Amino acid sequence: MIEREGRVVTDDGVELYYTSLGDGPQIVCVLAGFYFEKDFAALAAGRTFVYLHQRGRGLSRVPEGAVVDIRHEAADIETVRTALGIERWSLIGWSYMGTVTSLYAIEHPSALVRPVHLCSLGPDQST
To answer: What does pTM read for this prediction?
Structure first.
């Protein structure tokens, strides 16, 4: 069972805060989930939601000198998944977080059941 709240420390010293709701077998991580805790509560039956406060957001703590960028945020998701002992989970990302979810899906496909994008940013066509 996942603790109702806690912190996971990354290799560069960022303390990622999370809360959870439910105790079902389907595990869903919601990026910047502190915005949505009440909204997703109705969907908790049969699921466990992990609401992640990403680096630089919510109650996560970022020490001076730590980098806040999309690559580190995608790596943080994997750090949290591993620390919580989760084999596979789904991710919900909205806006910029949808892009983070996509990067995570590319880099860790075996850890992902499904990505869910809400109002996600599109791919950069300039490169």
So the answer is: 0.90
